[in-house]
Write a structure and sequence with these properties.
Nuclear Transport Factor 2, Chain: A, 2 helices, RNA endonuclease activity, 6-stranded mixed sheet, hydrolase activity, nuclease, Guanine-specific ribonuclease N1 and T1, globular
Length: about 120
């Protein structure tokens, strides 16, 4: 009986969709958030991005690789990341805004585990 259960579990693993095998989805099903619903610090970061700076962190503006594959697939260099300050945190924290083409912004409150498309 145990052997049959093992075989059944192995077979089921091969029948599951690819997304079930990875921690992150392969396609980008990104929720939407309005600017008004962003934390005040994210709104400040968004303003700085639109104005071209200044930025508080050296890493602001670096290429975001989208290795988590949560955002739509694009060529390397398409996305850039910016830090959203987190009150009470001494390092960069987990919050980011990712940019694509002008006007394309994404917010992550959990260090790229999930994203919300920012609707203006």
């Amino acid at each position: 009986m145990f052997r049959m259960l093992q075989l059944w579990l192995i077979l089921m693993a091969f029948c599951l969709p690819t997304e079930a095998h990875s921690h992150h989805p392969v396609t980008a099903d990104v929720a939407v958030i309005t600017v008004a619903d962003l934390p005040v610090e994210a709104r400040a970061t968004l303003r700085a991005i639109r104005q071209g700076g200044p930025f508080d962190y050296d890493r602001d503006g670096v290429v975001f690789g989208n290795y988590e594959r949560v955002l739509p697939k694009q060529t390397r260099g398409y996305y850039h990341e910016y830090t959203v300050k987190t009150p009470g945190v001494r390092n960069r924290g987990a919050r980011r805004i990712i940019t694509g083409v002008p006007g394309e912004y994404y917010y992550s409150a959990d260090h790229y585990q999930s994203f919300n498309r920012i609707r203006e």
